Amino acid sequence: LFADGELVATSGLIEQLRLVKDPGEVARIRSACAIADRALTHIRPQLGDQPTEAEFAALLDATMRDMGAADVSFETIVASGPNGAKPHHTPSDRTIVDGDLVVIDFGALVDGYHSDMTRTIAVGDVGAERTRMLDVVLAAQDAGVKAIVAGVDAAEVDKACRDIIDDAGWGDAFLHSTGHGVGLDIHEEPRVGARSTATLDAGQVVTVEPGVYLTGLGGVRIEDTVLVTDDGCDRLTLAP
């Protein structure tokens, strides 16, 4: 087809084309988010029945598939009690008990498109310090979501989250960047972090997921997938 053409290497060409989602892509991501919302809402009360982390993760995965997901987006994280201090914990045979914070990070896959959400749920009375962790991370996540608008530097979104956690004295316990793009891959451009050089554009889909991880006490991460718009963002993950 290109007898007189020259093949040259490219870098980031396809990734750039995938940055901004078209309406069909957004619809698929929104559908994946809605399935994840419904699944967690449906089975959340069972945390009070003292399942193991692995049992609750398996139930969440099965529920998402039953509700129409083609698959899960990635290996579901259920990290309870002290295990919550490990951001990428693999669900274990630890029993979830009263007094635990439970970090649940999961997503659904619909027509090749992913969702990504984290909720941290308090089971029973978790005490003053863990409640403060919840309050601080929720405030940081809210600040990050409110900072998103077309034209904002991704690093500024990270800073909005990080400043609140720094002010609480837990800056060293925020162990990862604030977010990433979501689409055909669960982690794609643009990256939302302190070192990011990206500027967010309308039509991009990114996560906002600050966290605090304290050895012995546990962890808190709250994550939403959002659609960047000209006047802010549209939150796609809505489970309380």
How would you summarize the topology of this molecule?
Elements: H1 13-17, H2 23-43, H3 53-66, E1 71-72, E2 77-80, E3 101-106, E4 108-110, E5 113-114, E6 117-122, H4 128-147, H5 154-167, E7 179-181, E8 188-192, E9 205-208, E10 211-214, E11 218-221, E12 224-229, E13 232-235
Antiparallel strand pairs: 1-4, 2-3, 3-6, 4-5, 7-8, 9-12, 10-11, 12-13
Can you tell me about this structure?
It is a single chain. The protein is built from five helices and 13 strands. The strands form five sheets. A three-stranded antiparallel beta sheet has the order 1-4-5. With 240 residues, the chain is α+β, with helices and mostly antiparallel strands. It has helices at residues 13-17, 23-43, 53-66, 128-147, 154-167; strands spanning 71-72, 77-80, 101-106, 108-110, 113-114, 117-122, 179-181, 188-192, 205-208, 211-214, 218-221, 224-229, 232-235. Helix 2 (23-43) crosses helix 3 and helix 4 (128-147) runs antiparallel to helix 5 (154-167). The chain is 31% helix and 22% strand.
Mean pLDDT: 97
Beta percentage is: 15-25%
Unreliable residue runs: none
Dominant shape: globular
Structural class: alpha+beta
SSE arrangement, N to C: HHHEEEEEEHHEEEEEEE
Major β-sheet profile: 3 strands, antiparallel
Which strands sit side by side, in order, in the main sheet? 1-4-5
Q: What value does the Rg take, in angstroms?
A: 19 Å
Termini distance?
Answer: 54 Å
Helical content stands at: 25-40%
Pick out its properties.
240 residues; alpha+beta; three-stranded antiparallel beta sheet; 5 helices; 13 strands; 31% helix
